Amino acid sequence: MTTEVLVRYADERLPRYTSYPTSPQFGPQVGANEYRAWLGALAPGLTASLYVHVPFCRSMCWYCGCHTTVARRDGPIESYVAALRREIALVRESVRVRLPVAHLHFGGGTPTILPPEEMGSLLSLLRDTFPFLPEAEVAIEIDPRTLTEDMVVALAAGGVTRASLGVQSFDAAVQKAINRVQTFEETAAAVASLRRAGIQGVNFDLIYGLPGQTVASCLDTVARALTLRPDRLSVFGYAHVPSFKKHQRKIREADLPDGPARLRQAEAIAAALERAGYRRIGLDHYALPSDPMAVAQARGTLRRNFQGYTTDPADVLLGFGASAIGRLPQGYVQNEVVIARYAERVAAGEVPIAKGYALTDEDRLRADLIERVMCDFKVDLAEVFGRHRRPAPRPTEAFPALGPLAADGVVRIDHGRVEVAASMKPLVRAVACAFDAYRGLGPRTHSRAV
Ligand code: SF4
Questions:
Q1: Measuring from atom 6 of ligand 1, which residue has the nearest CA?
Q2: For ligand 1, atom 3, which residue shows the shortest CA distance?
Q3: Residue 142 C-alpha to ligand 1 middle, in angstroms?
Q4: What are 37-91's pLDDT values in tens digits?
Q5: Cα 110 to middle of ligand 1, angstroms
Q6: Cα 361 to averaged position of ligand 1 atoms, centre (Å)
Q7: Residue 273: strand, helix, or coil
Q8: Long-range pairs for 221-225 at CB < 8 Å and ≥24 separation?
Q9: Residue nearest (by alpha carbon) to ligand 1 atom 7
Q10: Which domains are present in the chain?
Q11: Cα(first)–Cα(last) distance of the chain, in Å?
């Protein structure tokens, strides 16, 4: 029964719920004027998280689902950094309160494509613009293939505390099929260099469901990754959406593992990591028991944001750069995706918001339910409704999609508590979807449930 149910749901296309509502609901009804007004209305006492997007890479990996473009020269990168500096100043001008920073994340693309001196001065600019809390985490995504010693020195000097390394697979045939050839030695050298410089937090990103991948090749990748003892791993299923990401057309659909094979790969990786002492965090993260993420999960304080699972409790997320998404108590905003348009608007002195979404009280309630399910695999409706000053309803009356999930054994419902069955945890997105008022609406660009 379990496998049959898992396989049946595994092919559903579902959001990853890194926000609620999810980005297909964002629209032009929220733009630069609303964002400025929202920033100006931020109350004292809030903390912020910053996200800086760098949408450039030296080459394109065929599986990539990020907003990025290939830059062979440094000119466009330097112009982009100039736009980033201007955007940071524009946003700061609109904020009227002191906004201490608890977390800074550089994502991409490949943030370490910046010249090291530009990275150093961008880090200084952010620290001069916003007051950083002493315990602030400063994290950056790294491509080990192009990481230089000078960059590691600049990152350490700028106070970077955590590095997230793209690994995906150590299988040479898989690497060739995804246009990302990266030797184990390159990854090992990057880890050693970061740790030597004092950057102790090391995450690896792995992917299953890639062309030519098998359970054996996934397990071999895990075994090799574990020799480097990262303190966290993220393990994602490859999302094949070639209509949306044109470079993915270079991956032949016939070479992709099918739903049951993907499920076997995900389960084999999870079991290997758990045997090695890692705790499973939410849907797709793994952390050593002493890691703050494992501690947050045990305490029920784990959060979910655009980077996935996080320990970051900040009330405000300010996004900088093309396509960056921000979250304020009032709602979400997203910057222009096309780099030229982003830079043009910033040069004109505008905050470059392309679209957004103003949250209603109903959205906030559903967002809370979905975040707890995604983080804890269970949610107590009385507790969440109580936080939103509303009486708790009967679960299946308020959220009818829970009925079939309960009938299939995916969830257990008891006294207003909805809990994902242990063997059904890979289907947590299907459970979150039961609380989503927009389910089934909007373009079908989501990835498989498993
Ligand atoms: S390095 Fe990362 S962001 Fe760049 S193309 Fe590859 S997967 Fe995408």
A1: 61
A2: 109
A3: 10
A4: 999 999 999 999 999 999 999 999 999 999 999 999 999 999 999 999 999 999 9
A5: 7
A6: 37
A7: helix
A8: 221/167, 221/169, 221/170, 221/171, 222/269, 222/272, 222/273, 222/276, 223/272, 224/170, 224/184, 225/167, 225/170
A9: 64
A10: 1-24+360-441 (1.10.10.920), 31-320 (3.80.30.20)
A11: 17
For residues 64 and 247, the answer to whether their CB atoms sit within 8 Å is: yes
β-partners of residue 318 are: 50
Residue spans of beta strands (DSSP E) within 132-249:
132-142, 162-168, 201-208, 232-237
DSSP run (H or E) holding 327: strand 325-328
Per the CB < 8 A criterion, the answer to whether 237 and 209 are in contact is yes
Q: Starting at the earlier edge strand, list the strands of the sheet with 411-414.
A: 378-380, 417-420, 411-414
Closest ligand 1 atom to Cα of 180: 6
CB atoms within 10 A of CB 222: 24
With DSSP H G I counted as helix, E B as strand and the rest as coil, what are the percentages for the chain, rounded to 5?
40, 20, 35
Round the average pLDDT of the chain to a whole number and report it. 94
Residue whose CA is closest, atom 2 of ligand 1? 109
Residue 65 CA, closest ligand 1 atom number: 8
Q: Is residue 441 scored above 70 in pLDDT?
A: no
- One-letter amino acid of 242: P
Q: Which residues line ligand 1 (CB under 6 A)?
A: 57, 60-61, 64, 66, 68, 108-110, 143, 166
CA of 61 to the centre of ligand 1 (A): 6
How far apart are the C-alpha atoms of 182 and 205, rounded to whole Å?
13
Report the pLDDT value the prediction gives residue 404, as an integer from 0 to 100.
95
Q: Are strands 101-108 and 417-420 parallel, antiparallel or unpaired?
A: unpaired
Counting from 1 in the atom list of ligand 1, the atom nearest the Cα of 108 is 3
Whole-angstrom CA distances from 236 to 131, 447, 449 are: 34, 10, 11
